[in-house]
Amino acid sequence: MIVDDSVFIRGILSNWLSESADLRVVATHANGRRAVDDVLKSQPDVIILDLEMPEMDGLTALPLILEKKPNTVVLVASTLTRRGAEVSMKAMSLGAADYVPKPDAGRGISAADEFRRDLTAKVRSLGQRVRRRGGLPRVTAAAAAAAHAAPAAAPASVRPVAERSAVERAAPATSALLQKKVNDKRRPYSMAPVSILAVGSSTGGPQALTRLFTDIGPNIGSVPVVIVQHMPATFTAILAEHVGRAAGRPAAEGVDGEVLKPGHIYIAPGGKHMLLEKVGADKVIRLNDGPPVNFCKPAVDPMFDTVAELYGRNVLSVVLTGMGSDGAKGAGRIADAGGSVIAQDEETSVVWGMPGATVQLGNASEVLSIGEIGRKVSRLLTGGRA
């Protein structure tokens, strides 16, 4: 389903998506009210939802859609502005699975082509996840408690559906076969103390990062934290603010030449790779304007490579939800250097691309749900054993 007040946008998105044999547009609507009224009749797997519309905007419609049909995935579309980024982050906190930034008209055809590829890939990936699981049914109280219980948050079963992430609306148990494969290929945890926490994420990452840093914020005072989230400029600045609030720690986009400080969170700015370099006794941030890596800029692999080089067995890294395989090879370099790698599990990932690739390459020390990751990271940061 496509929901946008522009007849031109509805038409062009419909044409683009309909050109893919595995995708079908079941409905288009000009405002959120019509989408809410039609969602049960049209039964979409994925909804592309504009956030600024007359009569009923996307933020108002989103929780109503998820209340009516929780077994769907909502992809919000927003402008590449600060307000667009802020509203997108709000939408994801209300249950949207991901976002797509609308192209800047000033960038011409290349921006439109990039948007088209991004949109189609996300719709396909999110839709396949829904179909593979037969939808995203409401999780039972018992399953919610087992999969998501944490001191920092009430179980999903007792929170309004509008406050739950797409992940929390469905979290089936990890299959015994998958867990056996993971255990067979597991890399050992490092026995050395943690000196840096490095995190990579993409689709579904903002929600996962917020959950993770809510859990671990009190325990990161002794190490710097570096994060690569696949996002454009402006969005990464807003993400840093959200992560900082969740953690109760200083957080900002990394600045070239900035010295890493314990207890500070550094997020790769959109459109730049963020690397680390040793200068004298200090570790500093280096921003790189080179070509995309794994079709991403910023990319996780370049950061993981330099983290492994500088910190070796003192690295603790986490690969969270995301499309593609970015971070999987870099995680291998961290593991080869003696560091530790935690991958988010399939059940709590919006898309199990990046963590799945890390696991399949045999580069993970452990595979955990997003709630379990917070507890494990906190234990390792405070001197506990794996």
Automatic annotation (TrEMBL):
* Modification after translation, per record: Phosphorylated by CheA. Phosphorylation of the N-terminal regulatory domain activates the methylesterase activity.
Q: Catalytic residues per the record?
A: 202, 230, 326
Q: Name one GO cellular component term.
A: cytoplasm
Show the catalytic activity: [protein]-L-glutamate 5-O-methyl ester + H2O = L-glutamyl-[protein] + methanol + H(+); L-glutaminyl-[protein] + H2O = L-glutamyl-[protein] + NH4(+)
Q: Which residues form the CheB-type methylesterase domain?
A: 193-384
Which stretches make up the Response regulatory domain?
1-117
* Keyword Flavoprotein carried by entry: no
What is recorded about the domains?
Contains a C-terminal catalytic domain, and an N-terminal region which modulates catalytic activity.
The entry sums up its family as follows: Belongs to the CheB family.
Under which name does UniProt file this protein? Protein-glutamate methylesterase/protein-glutamine glutaminase
Species of provenance: Azorhizobium oxalatiphilum
Higher taxonomy: Bacteria, Pseudomonadati, Pseudomonadota, Alphaproteobacteria, Hyphomicrobiales
